[in-house]
Amino acid sequence: MITLHRLGHTPEPFALNPDLIVTVEAAHDTYVTLSTGVRLSVTETMDEVVAEIRDWRVLILTRALASQPTTVHHL
């Protein structure tokens, strides 16, 4: 999950599953469109949202690779 902040709402963050993100648009504000059709306006810039997604994916892959067995079994 990544943490973002809704534009025009209380400053409390919300968590979002990045797998739901279809597009991130930078106009006057930053808009995140989800696969559900919901369009969110957030305080983060497009570059910040993209960095959050990238960092989250790196973390997931790093954890997955770290959990792989290191020994190879030959048959």
TrEMBL record:
InterPro entries: SwrD-like. This is Flagellar protein FlbD. Pfam families: FlbD. It comes from the Bacteria.
